Amino acid sequence: FEFVNVIETIVTIETIQTSMRQTFTQFIMAEVPESIQNKANLAADQLIPHKSKSLYNLEYSKFVKWLANNGTGIINEVVLLTYFQELSEVFQPTSLWTKFSMIKKTLLLNKNVNIGNYAKLTQFLKNVSKGHVPKKSSVLTREDILKFLRQAPNHEYLLVKVALIFGIYGGCRRQELCDMLISDVEDRGEVIVVTIPQTKTDK
């Protein structure tokens, strides 16, 4: 009984603190000129990678839906601990850290709540990760690659060979290979110049 009272007290205190932070933020925002606020919103929008924005928003929507299903709109460490404890029963530690990163950024943008300061939550994720050995994907050795390039028949595997060369020796990512056009490849006789369109790093 006493333990339940303590938990309820902690939840109440954190709820009050969250409400105070949000009220204070709203007060500060009301004092900021609209032109400055618009520019700040544009800058904040850049905090999430453009190409991954849909994934971040999807993860945030799942969390919001979970809150609704559990009959609460409160966002505090107790709530986040419960959420990630449930996720840990389904997902591997590496996936939990990815979800944590996505939710942290989207909550900071949408609710001005920084769950990166939740020490108990981060410690929970660290504890879950202890002893976890991630599965290693099978990879081709240098000898395997050379053997395939030299021995596999061109009439059947020429396109795969080109993709392999661009991917391994050119450092291209999957999406970059998919976006590449014939016009991006220029034959200059002794050398071939390849232009990578819309790189992930925007370089």
From TrEMBL:
Gene3D superfamilies: Intergrase catalytic core (1.10.443.10). This is Tyr recombinase domain-containing protein. It comes from Photinus pyralis. Keywords: DNA recombination. Residues 135-203 form the Tyr recombinase domain. InterPro entries: DNA_brk_join_enz (IPR011010), Integrase-like_cat_sf (IPR013762), Integrase_catalytic (IPR002104). GO terms for biological process: DNA integration; DNA recombination. GO terms for molecular function: DNA binding. The keyword Mitochondrion does not apply. PROSITE patterns: TYR_RECOMBINASE. Signal peptide: none annotated. The lineage of its organism: Eukaryota, Metazoa, Ecdysozoa, Arthropoda, Hexapoda. The keyword Transmembrane helix does not apply.
